[in-house]
Design goal:
Layout (H helix, E strand, L loop, with lengths): L4 E3 L2 E3 L6 E5 L6 E7 L3 H16 L1 H4 L2 H30 L3 H19 L8 E6 L2 E9 L2 E5 L5 H15 L2 E5 L6 H4 L1 H8 L6 E4 L3 H8 L6 E5 L2 H13 L4 E5 L5 E4 L5 H11 L13 E5 L3 H15 L19 H17 L1 E4 L14 E4 L6 H4 L6 E7 L2 H9 L6 E5 L3 H10 L4 E4 L18 E2 L4 H6 L2 E8 L1
Parallel strand pairs: 7-8, 7-10, 8-9, 10-11, 12-13, 12-17, 13-16, 15-16, 17-18
Antiparallel strand pairs: 1-2, 3-4, 5-6, 6-20, 11-19, 14-15
Helix pairs in contact: 3-4, 3-5, 3-7, 4-5, 8-9, 10-11
The protein binds nicotinamide-adenine-dinucleotide (NAD).
Nicotinamide-adenine-dinucleotide (NAD) binds next to helix 8 and helix 9.
């Protein structure tokens, strides 16, 4: 298990002398102590290494050479997934079956962006008064990434792979709640053939994140986390060197189930898919709107499913576990307080309490008809807690769905394609899933409207945040 910072292709102790400890949310046992916490001198060292690599060896790599090391990294990640998975499972409680999926997505995103290294083409414009213009896209430079804890390797993959494809260098800071999985990737970075300094991995809390956001020699930062911290990152970026900022923030995503929907399909998506990663997913559709004609049947059957899923709660390392604990005591207290608040704001259908007497386990919970200003209906809970309201008309459902400061994802369940597309056009969200939920693929943009973010990750759009356009005029 690596607990040191990975800078310039070497694992090193933090100059800060500061460390942090990780405890298992399953039984509060110590998972790792002495996880090195980056201070200003460590951040500066990582940035200096990334700058030297950007100007030096990495700038000499051709597209096909970058492809090769990126593919090597993806293969190594697949090869070592079984060693990395328990690090995530132990530190943040993600069940092994979920970690394995996340690690598979991480190697996939490296393979996807490995195909882009020679495909970012420029433009040429017709001559005007004897002047021709060509536009070329150049790597933005030294980039930083800051990740949330709920799928750490995936955030590393989405940010770092896109940056590598166009020739940037990187400093990634994992979450202080789940630093171990990404720290383990340093060995694979070196073995894959990335020159020293191209990918650096540090750990630490919001203070280390602030050091990255305010650093004068970082050209771009991509942040995944809460709206609160995302706004701080943007502020620090603006107050320092106006580095480019991409923000992937929280959500309170709506799902609309019309009376012609395939009920069985809707039940699967609002139970199994919603409860994925114990509801700790930014795109989880936690505000469900069901047409009043089908609501009684849907709610009764969803209740039965949630009670069945309560039997899948278990230790993260048990391969049969589907629902693990919440990430830590702080998140547990937060979700438990929402459960108590919810009981005063809505009708509790099932769940609503701790599961067992040890570990940070919570029962899958359904609340019905929250008041319009209910906190459980307005605020992101980030746990296995869903709220349901009923509606009569399409207009009413759309209006309720959009009545939020968030705009990350959304779902529509209906048999009518024309209705699905009509409603999709009106939903204020970066992603709309029709007859589905939590669909995810790195080939398409991922990100939010409104306060769910700024910019996109994934696909060509995600890539273009890592380049600067340069217009060259020729007379
Ligand atoms: P968080 O904002 O508390 O922390 C996220 C990261 O930011 C951590 O690495 C943390 O150390 C760092 N950080 C905290 N304060 C900072 C500051 N002032 N400056 C710089 N960095 C700082 O969020 P969290 O609790 O780790 O994650 C949960 C949140 O993340 C939820 O809101 C969830 O919806 C969101 N999220 C969004 C996406 C997405 O892709 N849109 C994905 C996963 C999680």
């Amino acid at each position: 298990m690596h607990t040191q910072l990975f800078i310039n292709n070497e694992y090193v102790d933090a100059k800060s002398g500061e460390t942090l400890s990780i405890y298992s949310p399953h039984d509060e046992s110590l998972v790792a102590d002495k996880v090195q916490v980056a201070g200003q001198a460590d951040v500066d060292a990582a940035v200096a290494a990334a700058r030297a690599a950007f100007k030096g060896p990495w700038s000499k790599f051709t597209g096909p050479q970058r492809t090769k090391v990126m593919l090597n990294f993806a293969d190594l990640l697949d090869k070592h997934a079984a060693e990395i998975a328990p690090l995530e499972a132990n530190s943040m409680g993600m069940p092994l079956q979920v970690v394995n999926m996340i690690l598979g997505m991480t190697s996939s995103v490296f393979r996807y962006y490995a195909g882009w290294t020679d495909k970012v083409t420029g433009e040429q414009y017709p001559e005007v008064d004897g002047v021709y213009k060509i536009v070329q896209y150049e790597p933005v430079g030294v980039c930083a990434g800051i990740g949330a804890w709920n799928a750490s390797p995936m955030f590393f993959g989405a940010k770092v792979a896109a940056a590598m494809a166009v020739g940037c260098t990187f400093i990634y800071k994992g979450s202080e709640k789940s630093p171990l999985g990404v720290l383990a990737l340093g060995d694979l970075v070196k073995e894959a053939g990335f020159p020293p300094g191209v990918i650096n991995i540090i750990s630490g809390d919001g203070r280390a994140g602030s050091m990255l956001a305010s650093h004068m020699d970082i050209n771009k930062i991509s942040f995944t986390g809460s709206v609160f911290a995302g706004k701080k990152v943007q502020e620090l970026a603006a107050k320092s060197n106006l580095k480019r900022v991409v923000l992937e923030l929280g959500g309170k995503s709506p799902s609309i189930i019309f009376d012609d929907a395939d009920i069985e399909n809707a039940l699967v998506h609002h139970s199994q898919n919603f409860l994925f990663n114990t509801g700790q997913a930014c795109i989880a559709a936690s505000r469900t709107f069901v047409h009043e004609d089908i609501a009684p049947k849907f709610i009764e059957q969803l209740k039965a499913r949630y009670e069945q899923f309560a039997h899948t709660i278990g230790a993260p390392l048990d391969p049969k576990t589907f629902l693990g604990p919440l990430v830590d005591g702080k998140q547990f207290e937060r979700v438990m307080s929402f459960l108590e608040i919810g009981k005063t704001e809505a009708e509790l259908i099932t769940g609503g309490k701790r599961h067992g007497t040890s570990g940070f386990y919570v029962e899958p919970t359904i609340f019905l008809n929250p008041k319009d200003d209910a906190r459980i209906y307005r605020e992101e809970i980030f746990g296995p807690v869903i709220t349901i309201r009923t509606f009569k008309t399409e207009e009413e459902a759309i209006s309720m769905a959009n009545d939020t400061s968030y705009g990350l994802s959304s779902c529509i369940f209906t048999a009518s394609t024309s209705r699905a597309l009509r409603v999709a056009k009106q939903l204020e969200a970066g992603m709309v899933n029709i007859n589905s939920s939590q669909t995810f693929g790195m080939e398409a943009p991922f990100g939010g409207f409104k306060q769910s973010g700024l910019g996109r990750e994934g696909g060509r759009q995600g890539l273009m945040h890592y380049v600067e356009a340069k217009t060259i005029s020729i007379k």
